[in-house]
Each structure stands twice: as C-alpha cells, then as structure tokens.
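Researcher: Here's the sequence for the chain we discussed earlier.
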Amino acid sequence: MSNQEQNHELYLKQKALLDMFLEKHAISKKQYDKSFHDLTEKMGEEEYARTHFQENGAGRA
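Model: Thanks. This is the structure I predict for it:
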C-alpha cells in the first residue's frame, strides 16, 4: 500500500473516531465540526471530503 493510500486509510479511521465521539456525546457538534475541518485540511483530504460528505452535516455521511 502506498504512503498516500495509508494516509487516506488513517484519515477515514480518524473520521470514524470523530463520528463515534459525536454519537456518544463525548464531544459537541461544534467540536466535531472544528476537528473534522482541521483533520481534513491537515491531511489534504479536502477534495475527498467535498465529494463524499455533505456540507450541512460537516462530515457526517
């Protein structure tokens, strides 16, 4: 698996963790939105997020 593929898999795992935190009320929606935005930006996944996740749901598929 290439480095880019590994980074993408890590991004998806981190997003799933954020989703779980939000579902369990461990973080607020505001914290989720900020963390999802920061994660997406730092990992260079803006295009993927734009095409796979709704804007209104911030990262919720």
